User: Fold this.
Amino acid sequence: MPINHQSSINNLNISMSSPDLADADRQAVLEVLQTPNLSMGPRILEFEQAFRDFSSRKYAIGVSSGTAGLHLCVRAAGIGAGDYVITTPFSFVASANVLLFENAVPVFVDVDPRTGNINPELVADAAKNIRRYLPRCLPPATRHTSHASLKAILPVDVFGQPADLDPIREVAQEHDLKVIEDSCEALGAEYKGRKAGTLGEYGVYAFYPNKQITTGEGGVIVTDDDAAADFMRALRNQGRAVGDTWLQHTYLGYNYRLDEMSAALGTAQMTRLDELLKKREQVAAWYAERLAEMPEVETQVVEPFTTRMSWFVYVARFERRIDRDSLAKTLEARGVPARPYFAPIHLQPYMVERFGYQPGDFPVTEDLGARGLALPFSGVMSEAQVEHVCQTLRAVLRGR
Ligand SMILES: Cc1ncc(COP(=O)(O)O)c(C=O)c1O
Assistant:
């Protein structure tokens, strides 16, 4: 009997991602709306406390997005025009954009083909031989600046798996570099028993609705650095330093504040973090079981040093002979959304224009970017939905 795809879509209603909200989460937001404090009230303090408890770091600073958090870390690390930061082109654009905001230069190195995380050997080599790794063109704002120097490493915990941080930290120590850990995709992940986001000087988590917990929009920075924490708090709030009045602005700052409704939602979600992660683990396991039977599909490799994977997305990689983009279109037409993930950062038009990158510059990143497809994924997916996605995928791969 032919499958009636339209009716199964309606029954199964498969979306790319979905937040996992409980009545208590909704209630927490409604309670804020019974009060006059919609910004800079008690809820942001509670939310930050939850992150201090979670991370065992001295400071947690709630911000309006993961991008805002990363940008504040870049400022706190003293990264400015012409400075170099070693980072990965296999990421969401924000991790490199925050460097461009300060006219710093992202010095890309390629990634591990197994995990998509930054390759620590290349990080070490780039730190020793930085000139060899610089982009083809350096824009005028950054060219020949006498103070140009290598300042930091910005690894990304890709898809919820921590980057291999021990060797990266060794390079950082040897060359006196800060480590800004982009853990926007990895809340709750663990590296050799240590929490992702706590492995560098600064770590950042993000809470867009597809993330492990959500605040709508939002992020948190965690750090042990007293001076940096004060500075980032000030920059978050229009540059008002400790002791400044409402109209005193010691620094050039931003409005990167997280409002009270978002913070309340985040605190409520954090009380369920373990449950939320376990549900995502289950969905990932359902996928892994079914995709293992499809020889043309590679699934996520979880490294032995990853003592806990925090599933953010479920990315399947297809054999090179398969036209990934037309596969995505066909799936979409049959009610199963799927997205290429990631698109290499160095080949985004503004990056090409600014730095002269070309296809072939980072072959592993480009290969992963060309073969990966994020499948529908969230903690609220049922086994029947995963089954439907996999059945549809199987049928399309078999030309049915
Ligand atoms: C690796 C990475 N870095 C940074 C961000 C930025 O987070 P936000 O969207 O909250 O600004 C994201 C968001 O998806 C991300 O995946």
Remarks:
- The pocket of pyridoxal-5'-phosphate is lined by residues 65-67, 91-92, 94-95, 156, 182, 184-185, 206, 208, 219 (CB under 6 Å).
